[in-house]
Amino acid sequence: MDKKTLRQDNAGMSLLELVVAVGIFMILALVLFRGFISSSRLNKKSGIYLSATTMAQNIMEEIKSKTFAQVALAFNYPINPITNENRFGFLQDLQDTTTDGRGSSVTTKELLKSDNTYKKARLYEDVGKDADKVTASILSTDSGKTYTFLPKTKGTSASKYYFSMENVKNQKNTFDALVEFDGSKSSGYKKGSSSKVSGKNDYLMPNISKLDTEKNAFLIMDKDWDKNAMDTMIKEQHVEAERQYLIDKDSSEEPKELNYEEVYANTKRILEIKVTKEAGVVTAKARYTLWAYNYKNSENKYETMSICPCGGKNLGKSQSDSDWIQNCFCTYVSAYTAFYSSEAGNNLEGIYVFYYPNYNSTSSVNPLDEIVVDNTDNLKFDLYVTKQIPMVKSSEDATADFVKNPPTTTQEANYRMSFTVEENPTARGNANWNTNLGLYRAQIRLRSNLDYDISNLTQSNRPKLNQMKLTYRETTDSGLVKKATGNSAKTVLDFNSLDDKEAYDRIYTAKVTIYKEGAAKKNFPDEDKILTLDGSKEN
């Protein structure tokens, strides 16, 4: 090898070779950079999706763990005014809480949907107590401390509910959420009928055997409320009738002792129930009045209760009253007897009253049957009142079984009774409750098979009747009486039927959709949707 050749082999890279090498490097670097960006974007998107999934699961678990009323309460009044904490527990964990317990600037609210447009449901406070504009499913006059759930039962929005969460943070990501419930026919809901056992029953009969007796009270009235008292009244009437007969020296037939069945069938019966709370103990007690003054036998002028010395004026009084007229035999008032007393600290959940109706009570103005419930201590509980069907021997055999002896359809159609609930709304801060009867709700919720025909034992959908003279009443300290009657009283008392239908839970489809931040203000557009989690909820 000569020196010339050696010098050529040791020469550096040419300019062309350098340009080519740099070009190749740039191409490879660009490919790698693009791959890095795509991978970073994919990781970020996966992180957002994972964070949104966690958020949807948190919301779904919360709404399934609460009753439907509690869910609506949490969205309408998210901060518990007593504990100052958010009613959604996961918001407390996920976000930096502020002094009001809300956590970051999360906004929760109930929505109304119309033509795929959502708008905020107005609360009681939002409209200055304007009854016509309150649209939320939660009614509260004290910012959620106490409340009443107002179910949607009519119109195109019946059994459909919408709620939203805005500015919900999780793992440095911020989302909006739309929660939807649908219990309408479009969700697969179908009300049960007499011909089909499938379906859902809106009004459930409680399972008595499974009730907690420490929190529920039972009052069972026999067919004859007090036979001994009635026997005494009849005997005392006979003594007075014979005395007047002898004084008058009347030539008419001597009076006979009155027939028990006839007198009792025409006796006014008043059942009074009083519920109080003292030193943390809830007590329920009852007394009854038997008033037979109007009974008379047209065939003998002495065979009548109207010869009673009180002239019928002891009605509404008791023997302990100073103006009680003595020697009265047409009126009997029992002493108050406690039928329930709670353990200290326990709340009363329900009172169950069972009685046999007197089908001679047919006057809508002055019915013979009357029930009065005094709840002026404003305790919150459910009141169940049940008309019972009499039982009779299936044959003349003394050992024969008892069978049901249902009333006739005519008896049920003609039966009338008076039902009064007394509370003290003013003490609860609702002095003007009677001006908003469509909104105000009593502490007692009334469930009864009154106003329903029980003459047909096999019919699941019993026809409605008009049996109750229903009154919700407050008597103020000044003596002024404020009241709601009829359908208004039913609304105030949240009246629903209590029947022997088989119980089915109502199923609501539940859907939680997570959106990008700001989607709520843009009416939740599809392009901002991240994911949807479907489920169902029994209520």
As a percent range, the share of strand residues is: 25-35%
Please outline the major beta sheet. Answer: 8 strands, mixed
Report the span from N to C terminus.
99 Å
- Looking at the structure, what is the overall shape? elongated
- Count of helix runs: 8
The share of residues in helices is 10-25%
Number of strands: 23
Radius of gyration: 36 Å
| Average pLDDT taken over every residue | 82
Please tell me the total number of domains.
2
Unreliable runs: 95-103, 187-205, 500-505
Q: Helix/strand-derived class?
A: alpha/beta
Polypeptide structure, described:
By secondary structure, the chain is of the alpha/beta class. It has 2 domains: 60-189 and 507-538, no CATH class; 208-497, no CATH class. 21% of the residues lie in helices and 27% in strands. It is built from 8 helices and 23 strands. The chain has helices at residues 3-9, 15-65, 68-76, 89-94, 227-248, 260-265, 409-414, 486-492; strands spanning 107-114, 117-120, 138-139, 148-149, 160-170, 173-182, 216-220, 268-278, 281-291, 331-333, 337-341, 350-355, 369-374, 381-387, 391-393, 402-404, 417-422, 444-448, 468-475, 481-485, 496-497, 507-516, 529-538. The strands form 5 sheets. Strands 8, 9, 10, 11, 13, 17, 19 and 20 form an 8-stranded mixed beta sheet that branches. Strands 2-1-5-6-22-23 form a 6-stranded antiparallel beta sheet, covered by helices on one side. Strands 7-12-14-18-21 form a 5-stranded parallel beta sheet, with no helix packed on it. A hairpin with an 8-residue loop joins strand 15 and strand 16 (402-404). The longest helix is centred in the N-terminal third of the chain and has 51 residues, at 15-65. The chain is elongated and about 155 Å long. The protein starts with a helix and ends with a strand. The relative contact order is 0.12. Residues 95-103, 187-205 and 500-505 have low confidence and may be disordered. This is Type II secretion system protein. InterPro entries: N_methyl_site. The chain crosses the membrane at residues 12-37.
